[in-house]
Design goal:
The structure holds two protein chains of two kinds. Chain A is of the alpha+beta class. Helix content of chain A is 22%, strand content 38%. Chain A has one helix at residues 7-35; strands at 39-42, 44-50, 59-63, 71-78, 81-89, 95-98, 111-117, 121-127. Chain B has one domain (47-191). Classes of the chains: A alpha+beta, B mainly beta. Strand 5 (81-89) of chain A pairs antiparallel with strand 7 (113-120) of chain B.
């Protein structure tokens, strides 16, 4: 019995759809992570938090407690230079490095926070949402 | 209307693409970040102290403790210029700070003490500092800060605010400053920064 005339096209459609799914999943993941640059939740909320405005030099590095963490670190950097930082231990304190506590006039859009939470996530960087560095 | 095969393929690819993006958004990064613990102070809840000397002769260091609107026990580290609480800018100028949401907040009903370490790099005209501070619940009888370099332990006094404060010269890693919190009933909680 000869195959139906449209069989080759159907054989092509399934891999094509699968390929599109894989590619779009990757694209979606990249987009999701890009928009999570400033502050996001990986078991606990953490990252870069702007103050009242995006450009008033008032911003925070923050790591919330939870998920079994006993040590949390949040350091601030501007133009790649270390401004200072905070480490908290125990189970309930939120690591809160406020730029104002470490000096003023930092260029907010060129600032980052380096955050870490023991047993939850390793040291990584979150940028200002209006990144210009 | 009869669709051509390329149109069908394109439609299928677009539909599967949308499905993939949705799936990735759901799986990567999880749900949207919840609001962090609210450090907004309750007006009038602030208490100042203790106030201690700077190790190399600069402005005194002080704690400002306050209760947050979410019920958190919060503490902010600062400097004193006369009767004013504030911070020193990068150029060395003192700036008074009103009560704001800049404190570090925890829950003293869940653990006996909140223990914090701030580190400040050397800047023009300002030497580097490491400041260990925190808040202790009424159940705490004392705090001892050890130095792994073998020097004897330091007992920063616990003020009426429940705050304790130990400013040190230079930048010191937290792991070099294990803290033992002794409760009034004799139990001990060791914070070894691990």
């Amino acid at each position: 019995m000869s195959p139906p005339p449209h069989a080759p096209a159907r054989r092509l459609t399934t891999p094509l759809v699968l390929l599109a799914l894989v590619c779009s999943f990757s694209f979606g993941a990249i987009v999701r992570i890009a928009f999570a640059d400033s502050y996001h939740t990986a078991c606990v909320g953490h990252g870069f938090v702007h103050g009242n405005y995006l450009d008033d030099s008032s911003f925070y590095g923050r790591v919330e407690p939870g998920c079994g963490s006993t040590l949390r670190t949040c350091d601030l950097y501007t133009w790649g230079s270390w401004d200072g930082g905070q480490t908290v231990t125990g189970t309930t304190a939120t690591c809160t490095a406020w730029s104002i506590d470490f000096g003023s006039s930092y260029t907010e859009c060129a600032s980052t926070t380096h955050v870490e939470s023991s047993g939850v996530f390793s040291d990584h960087v979150h940028k200002a949402s209006n990144w210009c560095g | 209307m009869r669709l051509t095969r390329p149109v069908k393929l394109t439609a299928a690819a677009l539909a599967s693409g949308a499905l993939g993006v949705s799936a990735a958004s759901a799986l990567v990064g999880g749900s949207a970040a919840p609001a962090p613990q609210d450090p907004t102070p309750v007006a009038g809840s602030e208490r100042l102290g203790p106030i201690v000397p700077d190790p190399v002769g600069g402005l005194q260091w002080a704690l400002r403790a306050y209760t947050s609107t979410s019920g958190g026990d919060c503490v902010e580290l600062g400097r004193m210029s006369g009767e004013r609480f504030g911070q020193i800018d990068a150029d060395g100028t003192f700036r008074a700070l009103g009560l704001d949401a800049g404190g570090t907040c925890g829950d003293l009903s869940s653990e006996p003490a909140i223990v914090v370490l701030n580190t400040y790099p050397a800047r023009a005209g300002l030497a580097a500092r490491t400041v260990l501070f925190g808040l202790a619940s009424p159940a705490v009888g004392g705090v001892v800060v050890q130095r792994r370099d073998g020097s004897s332990g330091t007992r920063p006094p616990i003020g009426a605010t429940g705050g304790f404060l130990l400013p040190l010269a230079g930048t010191i890693a937290a792991s070099e400053l294990p803290v033992t919190v002794t409760l009034a009933d004799g139990r001990r909680v060791v914070h070894d920064w691990r």
